[in-house]
Fold each of these.
Amino acid sequence: MKIYRARHGGFCFGVKRAIKIALEAAKKAEGVYSLGPLIHNRLAVEDLRRRGISPIEKISGIKGNEVVIIRSHGVAPDVLRKLESRNCEIIDATCPRVRRAQRYVQKLINEGYYVVIIGEKDHPEVRGLFGYGANHATIYKDRHKIKKKKLGVVPQTTLNQERFNSAVTDLMSDAMEVKIFNTICRETALRINEATKLAEKADIMIVVGGKNSANTTRLYQICKKLKRSHHIESAGEIKRSWFKGAKSVGITAGASTPKEQVDDVVRKIRKVFPQKKK
Ligand code: SF4
């Protein structure tokens, strides 16, 4: 079985950085919280919990005076204010690229634009960006409901380029003026392009990552359109029957998948199909 492993599968720069920051904080303080799971990967979150980093869903669950990590998605300014009012020590691991998008939202508002954020409305990054909009922003859904003529546009960093292009074209058909900051992160495009290439050449595809990870699910959907594909969280889910008639397998992973989980998948496939000695 020939294995093609994606070079750009697994943790992106922002996630790697957030985990490093969180682990350093956990070494110094006894028990730290992350506001929401640090990554959308169940097994990795369990591992972080063992190392002293507990995810907490809502600020209401924080009594006060705790160490709280802001994950790579960032948060709205009012969330930071609430944490400060509870005397929490805030460790901000917002990805610098997300932080830049937040600054663009602020800048557009200061320049008098009505900001349209393009992305998934319930995604934490989008909720954070929207929070920087301070009542002068909306999340793109229907251009007919946006009555403003001077629009500023900021996409979610993990948005796919086609969706961004079509939303911008739509918005431009009504507005007098549109100022765009393209904050789509290169890491997303790299993963999508590479997964597409692998799915074109391999006989089957395996996408590794959390079922709750939007970017992993998107990679899976892209691969599925091209080849027989499977989305798994761990190597234990692999079935021999998937490989029937296949001579090669492509393996990719979302931006929130630890390298070790992909290593396990490679090892498992090697075990099922040992390489012949030359
Ligand atoms: S995908 Fe890009 S913007 Fe988002 S956390 Fe990763 S590096 Fe940062």
Amino acid sequence: MSDSRDACDNRSLMSSREVSRRGLFRGLLSPAKKVVEQTASSEETLLHRQYPRPPQAIAEPLFIQKCDGCGRCAEACPVGILNIHEGRPTLAIEYAECDACGACTSSCESGALDASVVMDTGLRPVILPQCLGRMDDLCRMCEIACPRTAIFFNQQNQPAVDSAKCNGCGKCKLVCYHGDIILSLKHHDS
Ligand code: SF4
Ligand code: SF4
């Protein structure tokens, strides 16, 4: 296994731990009812998006109203995956994944990004027909890399994505060195 793969795995583990710690802390402070409400509203939050947004963007119509395009979130993102496009932040996973660090949300003063929103970029992987893993079981890079076990191959070597488990981090796309995974918006109503 390569050093870069090890580094990637370590980073993923650290991110998971950070998220878990944050989640635990939040859980201790929040009543259980609020957690249920947040989970139920996460689907609605992703509706109507024309572009991928920072992972804790509020529902798109409100987001458009509240976000003033200041660009603080894009400056705060340690991996540089946010850009201001048409006056609002969009997220592009080309060279780095979103590890749900929350720096963008913390930097936002307008309320357009909100720590109570379930972390989800709204992106979901589409595994293309030419994926090598579909031919035999020699490649399972995306399945192995996914920190949320959202990708699995069946006994006929055909992959599937559990959209409810996936949070659109994009790690699967980055580990596929054949470029056979694209990310598309979960709800794209254009
Ligand atoms: S959660 Fe972190 S990595 Fe993801 S977009 Fe926001 S600042 Fe960037
Ligand atoms: S399937 Fe989803 S959660 Fe898993 S690596 Fe891909 S984008 Fe991330």
